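[recover] target loaded
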């Protein structure tokens, strides 16, 4: 069976290009060894945010207790999971039907290259003029004795009941977001992180403030702790670690892998197709085209680019690949302005240069570092610590970076990302009149 384009992966990084090329008259096939739809829609961002929404309601009610709000609402995990299922159940079938309506042939199974232009899927052998690899990322393999006892983010989102005690290995997005959900459900929660700072992409002071807020919510954060083994004794798991040379033991009903993800290239047999890759992913040029097999492109988390592993970037990569396939290489990805958010409670968000990057580059800039804890926006609902930091270039007055730790960080970061994307100067942003009282009405005081 021969195709103009074969796409491996049905998430954001693959779907856009597949559909666009099919509508342009190309014969297109898509392959996935999991239900169609990708990580974000089925086992990542979207179902996670449903659980976060419930946890935020509990947190809001708790903060306003004895300040006009009475009673103690609680989460019924099974009911919440049933609600979550309304967003994911049936989605793979709908996704696949949509692709078929666009005249994309769909295949189920593991794709493995057998030559530069042929691929095996189960009993089928397909031949493609062009390929797009969009397989995303998977949890990294941890070199820990007993790592077979770990569960993953997919598993957490499918738990029929929430365990009383949860241990999270690693201090990244997954651990912190799920830990905040579990804590609001009443579970005992520990995060074990080997470094001095978890969530190391974000501003140090903001992470420190978030750790304090996490501890208040019942999330115990153990830093500079190297996990050495995981053992099972009956129904309990015991995690052994070294904290600055001192042996520590932690007990829980489940141990969750939250120590990062890596490009999902395993099983593709890339060597057979002459595709160069490394631990960072498939090596691509500025057009997202393989360095060593010009008929192959890669997009999203599986590509070794400077882009962060985020769903919006995967979708944009796919659009770029579609344009380059249909019209020849002419479009390049732009990763300069990319906001990112960890949906903890409160949230933490960042876009552009961090202060560490600023000092490293030697750029002259004003850093507007603001403690917003006592500002009306945050006091009116008793929100605890809130912080903001905006970096403005001295010579151009352009915003180079913005960082927030607050309950409104996810929305605030988007305003600054927009200003950065379209070159709006800080002084011009200050002139803008926003509706009051809203979080955005604080922007004038931040720049």
């Amino acid at each position: 069976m021969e195709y103009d384009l074969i796409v491996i992966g049905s998430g954001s990084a693959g779907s856009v290009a597949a559909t666009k090329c099919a509508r342009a008259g190309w014969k297109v096939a898509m392959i996935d060894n999991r239900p169609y739809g990708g990580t974000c829609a089925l086992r990542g961002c979207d179902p996670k945010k449903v659980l976060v929404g419930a946890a935020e309601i509990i947190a809001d009610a708790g903060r306003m207790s004895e300040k006009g709000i009475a009673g103690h609402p609680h989460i019924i995990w099974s009911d919440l999971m049933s609600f979550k299922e309304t967003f994911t159940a049936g989605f793979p079938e709908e996704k696949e039907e949509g692709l078929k309506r666009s005249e994309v042939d769909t295949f189920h199974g593991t794709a493995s290259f057998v030559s530069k232009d042929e691929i095996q899927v189960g009993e089928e052998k397909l031949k493609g003029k062009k390929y797009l690899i969009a397989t995303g990322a998977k949890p990294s393999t941890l070199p820990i004795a007993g790592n077979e006892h770990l569960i993953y983010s997919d598993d957490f989102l499918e738990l029929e009941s929430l365990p009383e005690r949860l241990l999270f290995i690693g201090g990244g997005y997954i651990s912190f977001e799920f830990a905040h959900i579990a804590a609001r459900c009443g579970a005992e929660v520990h995060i074990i992180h080997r470094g001095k700072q978890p969530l190391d992409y974000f501003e140090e002071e903001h992470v420190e403030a978030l750790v304090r807020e996490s501890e208040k919510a019942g999330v115990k954060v153990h830093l500079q702790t190297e996990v050495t083994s995981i053992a099972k004794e009956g129904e309990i798991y015991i995690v052994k670690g070294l904290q600055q040379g001192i042996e520590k033991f932690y007990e829980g009903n489940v141990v969750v892998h939250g120590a990062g993800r890596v490009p999902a290239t395993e099983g593709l047999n890339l060597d057979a197709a002459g595709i160069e890759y490394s631990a960072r992913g498939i090596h691509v040029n500025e057009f997202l085209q393989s360095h060593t097999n010009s008929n192959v492109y890669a997009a999203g988390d599986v590509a070794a680019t400077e882009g962060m592993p985020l769903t919006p970037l995967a979708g944009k990569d796919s659009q770029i690949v579609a344009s380059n396939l249909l019209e020849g290489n002419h479009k390049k990805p732009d990763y300069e302005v990319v906001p990112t958010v960890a949906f903890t409670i409160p949230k933490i968000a960042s876009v552009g240069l961090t202060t560490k990057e600023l000092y490293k580059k030697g750029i002259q800039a004003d850093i507007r570092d603001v403690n917003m804890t006592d500002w009306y926006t945050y006091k009116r609902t008793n929100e605890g610590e809130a912080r903001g930091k905006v970096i403005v270039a001295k010579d151009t007055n352009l915003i180079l970076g913005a960082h927030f730790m607050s309950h409104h960080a996810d929305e605030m970061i988007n305003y600054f990302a927009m200003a950065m994307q379209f070159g709006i100067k800080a002084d011009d942003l200050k002139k803008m009149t926003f509706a009051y009282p809203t979080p955005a009405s604080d922007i004038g005081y931040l720049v």
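[recover] notes: The mean pLDDT is 96.
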